[in-house]
Design a protein that fits this description.
Structural class: alpha/beta
CATH class of the largest domain: Alpha Beta
Largest sheet: 5 strands, parallel
Length: 555
């Protein structure tokens, strides 16, 4: 053994040179496990260094100091290969092999022995021993045997992989049938028992994952296995299966709100790692596994609305309920007027309402696009009728309709419409004095509560303040300050009659920081003080002078 140790390094270098030309990618398993059992420490140490075991894909996980110790460790570690001496105190190698096999061990044994007779060989073969080597061990012979063992383990590993894949495929098919409820309850229950799928939970729900990354005009449907693992990180009790080019997740033991919260957190992790994220369609809770198909159908239906909810990353029944409470009035009313007066904030607000309207109506993608196109055509006709001399300067409408048609989400389309409306607003905004007065008046109606000065308004609308003051008075019949006072007083009357606000609170709400100034203005225009007005019936009090017609069109 000592002579063998002296030559081992030289032989290792020779084998390393031979193995350098092999393609390591052909190896199925990166590392197998082995044990050495011998009662002589020097033999165990010699075997550990006799071959470069890692080059043969083996890792020594344990050593046995005799037969009893070796058997215990074989059954504990379940190594792929065991090198065992025959002659040991207490329990010899052949007895160890027999008892290990009887206990269910299925690994490979190589016997080390000083015996060489027929009866011994016969017994070893009957126990399934792969080979036996006579001491002292020949290094080259051992190396050749180990290479054969590695090939055998690789083939076994391949076969096990195929079996696992077939079993996994069958298990996934069982989950598909469960979600579709395409078998009788009793049949599904038997299949779940066979595949050891635990479904004894008080609540279940289903989610569908679709990638949000764009390719052309389509959604990429399939998250990769690695990204799917990130999406399910730290979420216990989750099964998954591929259906209709999407990942379907089955959550066991948690409500859909909890599941959705965890998925959204993991979605953020995926976004940070891969610069991509997923759209989550969340089905509702069910109390029994046999009702899972209802949650799946719910998630599948909601998945069809990802066009509407693209920016939210997820949709659930709760989201739809919130939209239904948001009102259903026609949101496009007044858009033309806002474009005329250059109220960009108002334009954005209306388009935000359009988004809510489409969601509340549960428009499909085609329905939403038809609705938006129809509304834009009406808007175009109205603007061209009013600004015939300017219509040639308007942005290309055909280009806008193409963007509506090809848009991948409601949000994206509304951004294009907003851009179009803002451009048109800029063009018609220079259409003369009448139009700038409309725009200024509309601004006052909306922002009367702010600290407003003519100089600041003139700068905002790119006019000289003196010129704007003259134009404003000519068109309105009242000075800028008088019109602002009228607007504020009208709103003060409304607050005094319809709310429980104190007089000083009303004064602040409408833009008068000095309450004495408010008292004076109110009595001048209404005829009584704010306190007196609050005491009497508002309907019988008429303003001292009517609010001038501000000529703001209602389109």
């Amino acid at each position: 053994m000592r002579e063998q140790l002296e030559n081992s390094e030289r032989n290792r270098r020779i084998r390393a040179q031979k193995n350098s030309d092999k393609n390591v990618e052909e190896k199925v398993c990166s590392m197998y496990q082995m044990m050495i059992i011998d009662d002589e420490p020097v033999v165990r140490e010699g075997l550990k260094h006799l071959l470069p075991w890692e080059e043969y894909q083996f890792q020594i996980v344990a050593e046995g100091i005799d037969g009893n110790d070796g058997l215990t460790k074989v059954l504990e570690y379940q190594p792929d290969l065991v090198l065992v001496d025959v002659k040991m105190p207490g329990m010899n190698g052949l007895e160890l092999i027999k008892k290990a096999k009887e206990s269910g061990y299925e690994g490979i044994f190589l016997l080390l022995t000083g015996y060489s007779d027929f009866e011994f060989a016969k017994t070893a073969i009957s126990l399934g021993v792969r080979a036996y080597l006579l001491k002292p061990i020949d290094e080259e012979e051992l190396g050749e045997i180990i290479e054969t063992v590695v090939k055998e383990l690789d083939e076994k590993h391949k076969e096990n992989d195929v079996i696992r894949l077939k079993e996994e495929s069958a298990r996934r098919e069982m989950l598909r049938r469960l979600l579709l409820y395409s078998e009788k309850k009793e049949v599904l229950h038997e299949q779940m028992k066979y595949y050891e799928s635990e479904f004894s939970y008080p609540v279940f729900c289903v989610a569908i994952l679709n990638e949000k990354t764009k390719k052309g005009s389509a959604f990429i449907s399939y998250p990769s296995d690695e990204k799917l693992k990130q999406m399910l990180k730290d979420i216990e009790g989750t099964e998954y299966v591929s259906m209709e080019e999407s990942w379907v997740l089955i959550c066991k033991g948690h409500s859909y709100e909890y599941f959705l919260k965890r998925l959204l957190a993991n979605n953020e992790r995926v976004k940070n790692l891969y610069k991509e994220e997923y759209f989550i369609s969340m089905g509702h809770d069910v109390a029994h596994w046999e009702d899972l198909h209802y949650s799946y159908e719910s998630a599948r239906m909601l998945s069809g609305y990802r066009f509407l909810y693209h920016t939210e990353n997820a949709i659930s029944i709760k989201a739809l309920e919130q939209e239904q409470h948001g009102g259903m009035s026609e949101p496009y009313d007044g858009l033309c007027s806002l474009i005329e007066i250059g109220d960009l904030e108002g334009i954005e607000k209306i388009l935000h309402n359009v988004e809510g309207y489409c969601k509340a109506k549960l428009f499909t993608e085609p329905e939403a696009k038809i609705y938006l196109t129809h509304q834009m055509i009406k808007l175009k006709m109205m603007l061209e009728e009013r600004y015939d001399e300017k219509k040639k300067e308007f942005p290309d409408f055909e280009e806008l309709t193409a963007k509506v048609k090809n848009g991948e989400s409601l949000y994206e389309i509304l951004e294009e419409i907003k851009h179009y409306a803002n451009e048109v607003s800029h063009i018609v905004g220079a259409s003369g004095a009448d139009n700038v007065v409309k725009r200024v008046s509309a601004y006052l109606e909306k922002n009367y509560h702010k600290d407003i000065k003519l100089e600041a308004i003139a700068k905002m609308f790119n006019y000289n303040s003196a010129y704007l003051g003259k134009v404003f008075k000519k068109e309105m019949g009242e000075s800028f300050n008088n019109v602002l006072d009228h607007i504020r007083i009208e709103n003060a009357k409304k607050l005094l009659s319809e709310t429980d606000l104190k007089v000083y609170q009303v004064s602040e709400r409408i833009g008068y920081s000095n309450i004495d100034y408010f008292y004076a203005k109110f009595k001048r225009y209404v005829g009584v003080s704010p306190k007196e007005y609050k005491k009497v019936v508002p309907q019988i009090i008429q303003p001292a002078s009517p609010v001038p017609d501000r000529n703001v069109s209602k389109v």
